[in-house]
Amino acid sequence: MSEPDERTSPPASYRVGVIRGDGTGPEVVGEALKVVEAVRALEGFGVELIEFDLGAERYLRTGEVLLDEELEALRGLDAILLGAVGDPRVRPGVLERDLLLRIRFELDQYVNLRPVIRYPGVKTLVPSHTEDDVNMVVVRENSEGLYSGAGGFHRRGTPHEVAVQESVNTRHGVERIVRYAFELAMRPERRRRITLVHKTNVLTFAGDLYQRVVDEVGAADYPDVERDYVHVDAACIYFLDQPSRFDVIVTDNMFGDIVTDLGAMIQGGMGIAAGGNINPAGVSMFEPIGGTAPDHTGRGTINPLAATGAAQMLLAQLGEPEAAGRVETGIRFACSKLASMRAGEMGYSTSEVGDLVVEGASA
Ligand code: IPM
Ligand code: MN
């Protein structure tokens, strides 16, 4: 019998929303959750999965993309894991805007955090890169910019048609993403170096705001963080030629979208690239940054490591660093075994890769 005053707090349990989505989404989420289950059991905390039937299939079946009550349910969770959404049968923009972007915006997940790390053993198109070269985090602004949806048509469908798509950049929005990036650069695992990636020579209003905020915030509150600036086009060259110059990149929504696809390629491809849509004070959503891969759907050929990396980020965000560390160890182990990160060329099936991660994570 235990002493009356010997109190132990019950193990934590987290409510995690699961959006498996379309295409290969369900397959990769299945493997990521297999890994979560393994490390959860080892570390002794609970995870309750709450499934959300969202995506193209649901839309085609019911005409509904995301109901207000579903959004409210998502708001009440501890975190969300998303596979992929999209389908050639659905007009471009419907699921992107009304599901993915709506969740990002409504839950105010203003940080899109995308680590770019080349794990040992991973083949990329730049064989000379090592983990010492490719080890950066892209902090992509995730709530405004060109993604705000501001703009419109004038005289649509006529020879004098005008289409305006505006980039909205607020002092509040820019300052909070810049501060997040500086805080990240100060963490022990980082190198205290921040690079603003923009196009200040052409986007003279938005770019000027970003540059001023980086300089002001950096000088006032983060004097120990080295500041650098690189135009977005030049950044594409450096990603290939000199990636070690980047530690923490801060950039706007559109540039961040584009450079992180290039980032994925120097870490091994979409098969390994994970990201998080983060609201530091709210509910965050983690996802592989690739899409639904219709060619691989249902064949057991898709790489689940990106979704597993998303689960790793989710566990870290929940405040379970040991479990997250185990997942990373498992991913590194799998990376040392796989012939390639590319779907169908891994030398293992989707579920075998999940098993490798579990094996590495359980050691
Ligand atoms: C991404 C995707 C999305 C984006 C699309 C699907 C709307 O490309 O997460 O990078 O542009 O943010
Ligand atoms: Mn993208």
Q: What does the secondary structure layout of this molecule look like, with pairings?
A:
Blueprint (H helix, E strand, L loop, with lengths): L12 E9 L3 H19 L2 E6 L4 H7 L5 H8 L3 E6 L9 H13 L4 E7 L17 E7 L9 E4 L7 E4 L5 H16 L6 E6 L7 H16 L4 E6 H10 L6 E4 L1 H15 L6 E5 L5 E5 L16 H14 L2 H17 L12 H13 L1
Parallel strand pairs: 1-2, 1-3, 3-12, 5-10, 8-9, 8-10
Antiparallel strand pairs: 4-5, 4-11, 6-7, 11-12
Helix pairs in contact: 1-9, 1-10, 1-11, 5-6, 7-8, 9-10, 10-11
3-isopropylmalic acid binds next to helix 4.
Write structural notes for this entry:
This protein has helices at 25-43, 56-62, 68-75, 94-106, 171-186, 206-221, 232-241, 253-267, 305-318, 321-337, 350-362, and strands at residues 13-21, 46-51, 79-84, 111-117, 135-141, 151-154, 162-165, 193-198, 226-231, 248-251, 274-278, 284-288. It is built from eleven helices and twelve strands. Helix 1 runs parallel beside helix 11. With 363 residues, the chain is an alpha/beta fold. Strands 2-1-3-12-11-4-5-10-8-9 form a ten-stranded mixed β-sheet, sandwiched between helices. It has a two-stranded antiparallel sheet with strand order 6-7. The model has no long low-confidence stretch (mean pLDDT 96). A hairpin with a 5-residue loop joins strand 11 and strand 12 (284-288). The longest helix is centred in the first third of the chain and has 19 residues, at 25-43. The protein binds 3-isopropylmalic acid and manganese (II) ion (MN). The site of 3-isopropylmalic acid (IPM) has 4 residues, from helix 4.
